Prior knowledge:
Elements: E1 9-10, H1 15-42, H2 44-72, E2 74-77, E3 81-86, E4 92-97, E5 103-108, H3 110-115, E6 117-123, E7 133-140, H4 141-152, E8 166-170, H5 184-202, H6 206-216, H7 222-249, E9 253-257, E10 261-266, E11 271-277, E12 281-289, H8 290-294, E13 297-304, H9 309-314, E14 320-326, H10 327-338, H11 354-381, H12 384-411, E15 413-417, E16 420-425, E17 429-436, E18 440-446, H13 449-454, E19 456-463, E20 469-476, H14 477-487
Transmembrane segments: 16-42, 48-68, 183-203, 223-246, 361-381, 387-406
Domain YdbS-like PH: 70-143, 409-473
Protein name: PH domain-containing protein
Amino acid sequence: MSTPADDWRRLDRRTVLVTVLVTAGVLVGAAVPVAVAVAGRIGTGSALVWTAAAVVLLTCCSAGTDYVRWRRTRYRVGAERVALHTGLLLVKERSLARERIRSVDLTARPLLRLLGLVTVRIGTGEHAGSDSTLELDPVTRAEGERLRRLLLERAATGPAGSHREGELIALDLRWIRYAPASFVAPMLGGAAAGAVMQVSEWAGAQGRVIAWAGDLFRDTPLLWTVLVLVLAAGVAGIVGALGLWVEMWWSYRLEREPGGTLRVRRGLLTSRSVSIEERRLRGIELVEPLGVRLLGAARLDAITTGLTQDDKEKHGTHNTLLPTVPRTLADSVAADVLREPATPTGAPLTGHPRAARRRRLGWALWAVLAPVAVLAVLGALLTPVLLWIALACAVVFLPLAVLLALDAYRALGHAVGGAYLVTRSGTVRRSTAALERAGVIGWTVRQSFFQRRSGLLSITATTAAGTGAYTAYDTDASEGLGFASEAVPGLLEPFLERS
C-alpha cells in the first residue's frame, strides 16, 4: 500500500459498532439483577420498561461519545515521527521518534477479531508511562500488520550467530498438563465458590442455596463435608485453569524475524502479538513455581529494557517468551533466544554458606511458632478450643515450614557464566535469572546486623532491564564481593578494601 508518508489516517469507523455492542452487553448484564430486584416493588412490566430505557439511553450516550472520539482522532507515520491527534475540548497531539520505537504489539479481543480489527500499541521502551506509548484502537488487522512491519523495519542489525531464524518453537498441546499444577487452579476454585454465592445473592436466592447445601450434607460428618467441598472447589479450579491456559496459549508461536526481533503470538479468543527487539534483550529468567517444579517444568521470561509500569500492570505476561514446558526444553529455547550454545541458567552455581540455611530455618520457626504461641496463650486464658487449634497448627505447619526453608536454602546460588551473571533464589517461586554482564549499571550491597555476625551479605545487580534488580541473597561476604568484582570488573573495585 503506497501512500504519502505524511497522510493523516483515521481509526476504523467500526469502533462505534464495537462500543455499542460492548456497552449494551455490559448494561444488559447489569440490568437483569436490577430489574429482578425492583420488580417486586413497581411491577414486572414497569421494571422492564425502565431498565430497557436506561440501557438504550446509556448505550446511545456511549456511542455518541465514541463517534466524537473517532471523528477527532487521526494518526500518521512520517519519515521521522509517528503522530497521534485526538480530543475535542482538550486537544492532544503526541508523537514518537521512529528511531526510538522498540515495540509494536497487536491485541484483538473476541469482538475485534470477529470484525477483523486489532488494537495497536506502539512503545519506545522507556519508563515514561503513557508518554512513551501510542495506542490506536482499533484499526484493521492488515493496517496493524503494516504498521508493525513499517515501524520495526530495521537493517539486519541482530547479533550474529548460528542459531536459526524464523520459527523457534510452536504450541505443543501436551504442555497443558502443567496448567492444573499452577497456583491459578486453587485461586480459580475459590473464585468459583464465591461467584456462586454472589450470583445467588443477586438473584435473591442465596438463602435457598445455603439451605440446599445444608440439606445435601445433613447426615454427612463435618470432616467429610469439608473434604467434599474442597474437592469440588479443586475440580472447578482445575477446569478453570485448563480453560485459562487454552485461552492464553492457543496458537502460540515464538519467531525470530529479520533484523533481530523476537515475536510471540498467542491467544484463542483474544489474540496477542508481542514483539521484542533483541537489542532490548538483557537476559532471560527461568521461573519454576513450586507445583510445576515438582513436575520438572519451568517458564521462560525475557529480561528486557523498556518494560514500563503500565506494561507490568496491564500485561502480566507481556515479557513471557515460553509457557510452562519441560525444563530441558526451556533450557534449549533459552539458548536459542540468547544465541548461545548452552543456556547460562544451566551453569554450575556456587552454593551459599550454612549460615544462610540457619537464617531460613529461623524465619520458618518464627513464622509458625509466633502465631501458635499467641493461640496457646489465648487458649489458656479463654477456651481450650484454641489450645487444640494451636496444637494442630504446630503439627501441620511446622514440618511444612522446615521443608520449605531447606528447599529455599538449596535454591540459593550464583555464578558468572560467559557474558552473563546468574542468580537463583526462591522456593514457592524459584527464579533463575541470567543477566547480561554489560547490562549491569551498579551494585547494591546490604548487610544487616545478623548477617554481619554470620559473615553474610546480599549483593544486588541493578539494571535498566526487567525488574531492575537481581540479588544473590546471603552469600559469603568475600565470595559475594568477588562475584560482583568478577562479573563487572572495575565497577565495585573503588569501594573495596583488599587485605
